[in-house]
Write a structure and sequence with these properties.
six-stranded parallel beta sheet; 10 helices; three-stranded antiparallel beta sheet; binds zinc ion; globular; TIM Barrel; alpha/beta
Length: 320
């Protein structure tokens, strides 16, 4: 705490001096650091239907390239699609075959792009066949053994314990598998920097303390990054929103939640600029390519402003 004559920049500089004792800045290749945006495609299988299939990935990638977007972000690719059946991160059968998905990623990698895969690192669909066994075992439990649940319409999910090795291994191994078998250059872990932490008192988890939530995610980030970079030295992790203790291990952050959640994003960028939070745009939702191109060229920072989703439409079916 201190008294100062100016605005929050004074506090941000002071905070930076303190936190730099405890964190390291990530080493990001210069060409990745210069990436100006990415195309988040949530429009494969997104409740309630299918908009695109794996065989369309090359054309979808080329569409983004016309707007200068070489970073292709794949969400809704998993069994039953976006926000469904988590954490069953296996290619949805109605979107194509595993080889269709691998071929799409290969096309991106061979044409000057990179593919990042979405997985959610926090929640388990309570309607999953595996919830009564694995989900219940991995879930956070409060001091009375109760679970924490979150609803993303129309589905309900239980929050998993990131400090439990069972959940850690599952997320780390998914990331490793995607990098190895699908050529994923990036792995995006949803909710890690945005959703609130909880205590966990489950004795079966055997973590050293009930408040190991953030330490658990640090372990996931550290190990997952190490594993994927053994496969591809340029591979990287991204998380939703930003967190300074996580920043040493991530290449970029997705900030799109609006002012209720992203209000501190500019402060984060000022006090820790080297952590390089990412930006994003959605080429498919806006049917006016010329308008999209002008947004990207005239307002290069537009996608990273707090609460500003450059082109929108990434949480539901593409409007007609
Ligand atoms: Zn636990």
């Amino acid at each position: 705490m201190g008294i100062h004559p100016g605005d929050w920049h004074w506090g941000a500089r002071r905070y930076r001096r303190w936190i730099e004792q405890y964190i390291a800045y990530p080493e990001v290749p210069q060409d990745l650091r210069e990436q100006a945006g990415m195309a988040p495609r949530y429009d494969f299988r997104n409740y309630p239907g299918i908009q695109h299939r794996f065989e369309e990935i090359p054309a979808m990638f080329e569409e983004g390239k016309t707007m200068g977007l070489e970073h292709f972000f794949i969400a809704g690719w998993n069994r039953q699609g976006f926000d469904n059946n988590y954490p069953e991160y296996y290619p949805d059968m109605e979107l194509g075959t595993v080889e269709d998905l691998a071929a799409g990623c290969r096309y991106i990698n061979e044409h000057g792009g990179m593919a990042t895969f979405y997985i959610n690192a926090r929640i388990f669909d309570v309607e999953s066949d595996y919830y009564p066994t694995l989900g219940v075992q991995w879930a956070l439990k409060d001091e009375k053994g109760r679970q924490f649940q979150e609803v993303y319409e129309p589905k309900t999910f239980a929050v998993m314990c990131p400090a439990y090795v069972g959940w850690q291994k599952r997320i780390i191994d998914y990331a490793t598998w995607m990098a190895r078998c699908f050529g994923a250059g990036g792995i995006y872990l949803d909710q890690v920097g945005s959703a609130e932490p909880h205590v966990c008192y489950d004795p079966v988890h055997r973590h050293s303390h009930h408040g190991m939530f953030n330490h658990g995610y640090l372990e996931i980030l550290r190990t997952a990054r190490e594993r994927i970079q053994k496969i591809n030295p340029r591979a990287f992790l991204m998380i939703e929103n930003c967190g300074d203790i996580y920043g040493s291990y991530v290449f970029g952050s997705l900030t799109w939640n609006g002012t209720l959640y992203d209000e501190f994003f500019n402060m984060y960028k000022v006090h820790l600029p080297a952590l390089h939070p990412g930006k994003h745009g959605q080429p498919a939702a806006d049917r006016r390519p010329a308008h999209q191109r002008s947004l990207f060229s005239q307002r290069p920072g537009a996608g990273d402003a707090p609460g500003e989703r450059l082109l929108g439409g990434d949480r539901g079916p593409v409007p007609p």
